[in-house]
Specification:
Shape: elongated
Low-confidence stretches: none
Order of helices and strands: EHHEEEHHHHEEEEEE
Strand order of the largest sheet: 5-10-6-7-8-9
CATH architecture of the largest domain: 2-Layer Sandwich
Helix content: 25-40%
CATH class of the largest domain: Alpha Beta
Mean pLDDT: 93
Number of helices: 6
Distance between the termini: 39 Å
Structural class: alpha+beta
Number of domains: 2
CATH topology of the largest domain: Zincin-like
Length: about 210
């Protein structure tokens, strides 16, 4: 999917039902160019502040996110916009100032049934100390992941049974040995060495011999 500027009407289809009405005022009070872009493995969304050549706020969101992940990511980037308006470049990107703005934009969406109960529960815990990415909070990541559309056979390492095998994108095959907090000890079937893998990594479950 090519990167393109998104109209507000088009935006509504990416959001949970009913939530667009609370998002729309941000675009009425700020000049924002929003783009829906192709999947990026390193980021879910991005914010760029106004510059002389582009004198407006720029936000991009990955097109493959489920509705709930999309809304959380959009609010994350809007918090960057608000933080920039107040502090410009004088504060760190995900410091206390951004965390405060993110809480303020997220709280009005809690308790409105925009999110499923499991996602809302994880968000309430997450909001106490929001991180640079939802991927760094295992409980929130797993709650949002449940609503992803994914290819058959793919699942999180945490969801594999002990001794179950999985394949990485590069073709390497591992066997799950034991979970240790947020990571899992796995054995590479080719070189017999042991490695620690993040429990929230998505992998393809495979059967071996």
């Amino acid at each position: 999917m090519k990167k393109k500027e998104t109209s507000l009407n088009f935006l509504e289809k990416f959001l949970p039902p009913g939530s667009f009405e609370q998002i729309e005022p941000f675009f009425q009070t700020h000049v924002i160019h929003l783009t829906i872009t192709h999947e990026r493995k390193s980021v879910l969304g991005d914010y760029r502040n106004p510059v002389p050549d582009n004198p407006f706020h720029r936000i991009s969101i990955n097109c493959n996110l489920n509705r709930y992940s999309f809304l959380v990511t959009l609010l994350h980037e809007l918090a960057h916009l608000l933080t920039y308006n107040i502090h410009k470049h004088k504060v760190s990107p995900h410091g206390d100032e951004w965390k405060s703005q993110f809480r303020q934009v997220l709280i009005p969406f809690i308790g409105k049934k925009y999110f499923p109960p499991d996602v809302e529960k994880a968000l309430i815990a997450y909001i106490n100390n929001p991180a640079a990415s939802t991927c760094t909070d295992p409980k929130l990541f797993k709650a949002l992941y449940r609503y992803d559309e994914r290819k058959p056979g793919f699942k999180l390492v945490d969801d594999l049974e002990v001794n179950e095998c999985f394949e990485l994108e590069d073709g390497q095959i591992f066997q799950k040995i034991e979970k240790i907090r947020t990571r899992t000890r796995c054995r590479n079937l080719a070189n017999k060495r042991y490695y620690f893998v993040q429990g929230i990594m998505e992998v393809k479950a495979v059967k071996v011999g």
